[in-house]
Give the backbone structure.
Amino acid sequence: MMGVKNRASLAACKDYADGVYFSIDRFSLRARACDITLDGLNDFVSDVKENDLNAYLALNTVIYPDDLDDLDVVIDSVASSDVDAVIAWDPAVITKAVDAGLRVHISTQANVSNWQTVEFYGSLGASRVVLARELSMENIKEIRRNTDIELEVFIHGAMCQAISGRCYLSAYVLGKSANCGECSQPCRWGWKLVGDDGSEVDLEGKYLLSARDLCMIEHIPELIDAGVNAFKVEGRLKDARYTSTVSRCYREALDSYCDGSYTIEKARSWKEELSSVFNRGFSTGFYFGVPGPDGISIESDMNVSTTKRHAVGVITNYFRKSGAAEVKLLETGIAVGDHIIIEGKSTYFEQAVTEIRSDEGPVLSASSGDVVGIAVKDKVRENDRVYRLEIPD
């Protein structure tokens, strides 16, 4: 199951994922992923279904008293849609969803860490439980042996410093609650160690709280043998290229396991591809023991991917008959032969720049500030963004 934030992300993973999970403009732990609104829910779910995918809606924030009336409105709308299940952990959402006849998957926010808790949520009407990220492979096997309820685990993406993401650091420091979808990620900052006497420890630019990303591509067989029913990839705030690459690599790994061709050599090749999109370095999280220093991205707070993308400009017009687009180069220039991404809320594809035209005719390159035409291989839309990929040899 792949996390998506809009139609472009859906298009990027539709050929690889079995289902997508997403947020609307409220009650989501990814408040910035708000391209899909409650008013547009039915249309988006219809798009998901047209691609033969399951649709799972995350309603996984803390619910406060002032939220209850709005929650009723959301549940009523979801109940009249084709959403396959809601992902929740707050009992208010669970009970309202079950009463409305909706299937419920328990969010990892519930920190479910044993089979009796799985069974408890099953007694409330849940059909699937997303297990706590802090469980080992042996813990998961033990839970599987004692319950028939569907189990889901995260296999790739950002890891949180706090237990099952229940973090209060952002709320304490900035007044932006992670439990209400507004995390500002202060764990990714460079911090100082200051003693009671005011003395400071020189950290030499190191990051002490920034966890590496989870990557389990080399352990797909163990996860399947553990009895897991569904794999989940974090990605609702990632770009569509990340969505495409990650979903494809894990689809190929799963298919290879099923047809008997999975090898560790293949897995390492997929891991190299995964390192080419956004990541903070990789670890296996808690699956094989409590992470030590190797679970922290000491040298960098953010993206260490081998491939970088640079903002180029914005689409200002599209000429369908000629298969061309007008681009205003805002940040940097482009040249024939460059590998670019064109991405918007409903657009995503990669291509090489095969032709550039200025007012004077064909040119080999153009600079920031220019407005040029380029040949495009698919439909683009006004305000779609253009990025240039810097790919290592």
Remarks:
- The longest strand covers residues 308-319.
